[in-house]
Specification:
By secondary structure, this protein is an alpha+beta fold. It contains two helices and two strands; from the N terminus they run βαβα. The longest helix has 19 residues.
Length: 75
């Protein structure tokens, strides 16, 4: 297993299509799958929202807890 810990989150309303016809949400799912396929430790969270500051305020503490929990247990 990797000693690198990733925290990834994505709002379920980030569904607008990009130039390739896929949404940021779809690309994030692929990114998380690729990280895991390479043996990385990934904490992935969906949240009910889009891409704006109000959502980040609510999800940032969750990200900090996820990362801090990694340091409270022996590697």
């Amino acid at each position: 297993p990797s000693s690198v810990h990733f925290y990834v989150e994505m709002g379920v309303f980030e569904r607008g299509s990009g130039p390739d016809g896929r949404s940021g949400y779809d690309h994030t799912q692929d990114f998380v799958a690729a990280l895991r396929a390479h043996g990385n430790d990934v904490d992935y969270q969906d949240y009910c929202g889009g891409h704006d500051y109000l959502n980040w305020r609510a999800t940032f503490p969750r990200a900090l807890r996820s990362i801090a929990a990694r340091f409270s247990t022996p590697l």
